[in-house]
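Quick one: structure for this chain?
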Amino acid sequence: MPTDCISYQKSGYFSKLIVDYLDEKPELATLYNRFPKLDNFKAQIVEKAANYDSKNRNVLVASLKNQYSRFEVSDAVKENISILSDSRTFTITTGHQLNLFTGPLYFLYKIASTINLCTTLKKEYPSYDFVPVYWMATEDHDFEEINYFNFKNVKIKWNAESSGPVGRLSTNGLEEVYNLFSGELGVGQNASELRKLFEDSYLKHTNLADATRFLANELFGNKGLVIIDGDDASLKQLLVAFAKEELVSRKSFQKVSETNSLLEKDYPVQVNPREINLFYIEDSLRERIIFENSQYKINNTKLVFSETEILELLEKNPEKFSPNVILRPLYEEVILPNLCYIGGGGEISYWLQLKSNFEAHNVTFPILLVRNSVLIATEKQLQKADRLQLSWADLFSNQQDLFNNKTKEFSSFNIDFTEQKEHLKNQFEKLQEIAKQTDRSFIGAVNAQQTKQIKGLENLEKRLLKAEKRVHAEKLELILLLQNELFPNQGLQERRVNFSEFYLTANKGLIEKILEQLNPLEQTFTVITL
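Got it. Here's what it folds into:
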């Protein structure tokens, strides 16, 4: 079976908006800057170089050095942080939540896409340098979304309470999670490596941000991946001017709302703006800032500020202000000399709502690239698919449709009565013409008879299909088992399974295989064989 198995557009796992974006539908052209093609990056470089404040590079490099000061850093990471000072260096960025032990597999694919695009761009534009960046979503407060991962159908969950920015959350209590995971891993060298990786990440670091940085650095640091934490007082200084405008003029609400009103005619809207798209944060608090009765109130607290007071607080303590999903992308692009954001379908959908807001703030809108999607299969599974005469289109299809289609394919006679139903419809059309010319009162009777006979054929078709399923039950059961192995819970493997399941077989070779086989500019699922 081929390793490029099916296009994103034909997979059935992407929204209409993303499919139309990938197909470069002209009606979406105003929602993005440039389409992710290799030739388009030169113009993106020129535009970003012209609009990016060079002073921000110094703040960025100093902040990164400070963030990495407590960590062992590879030469590749040190070099990439250093060259960010150079005006000919640009970043390719992905972002992700601080999911426990990376969460689902697609965390790896996001970062691999980012690293590989940098490699591709360096070959195409050798006079520039490109640094892969992972933006940790340390300021998110949706702990329930990140406090678990699945390992061999067991949910490994961290039972803790969190109401503030998750990056600041203490790692106390993760010993219990470690013991549960350790017990599920079994024996062997690879299992021991996974135990040590979890222990070194979560039991030897005091907060979730540091634990996640260590983990991602262990997996990808040798490839020069630079990890950035936006919950940083120095970096927040670069947000002050934009946050002030957000508090006073509320331009983001207007611009994104205008885009949404156009989008929602044809597509579901992914995110809706607030009048103020900022949170107020402390260690155990992340709440919306609401403007009400000429005052700025912190939702669900007794904190209230006048305009003068909140602007003074912003100047003195910008780290207390946290951008939401509408403003965070702007914050990223102000900080970073970034050319391209790589994300999943859901992320790219909401980025497509934001271009007008970037233009209103005179910030270059990045190229938007849908990350690589991957299906990991064993050689045995691929051989089984070949024996069962299954294509990738078959395996990606709805399970009921797959059953019906394969049953018809296996059957020695034609179960599809479409031809017979069309023949009946033609006959009844002639009868209707006769009825019109003789007695129009017969038309109702003719229509009723047509409905009855068509329904009879459909019932016969269903009964024959059911009978044929019994005849081919053994083969169909094998198909069911294989599809369920590759698509757990009839969903994408990459959205459910943790990397540790495959690490048990492939160890560090898993990361290398992923990096070797992913082409970030291709729009097809990639099959990786273990």
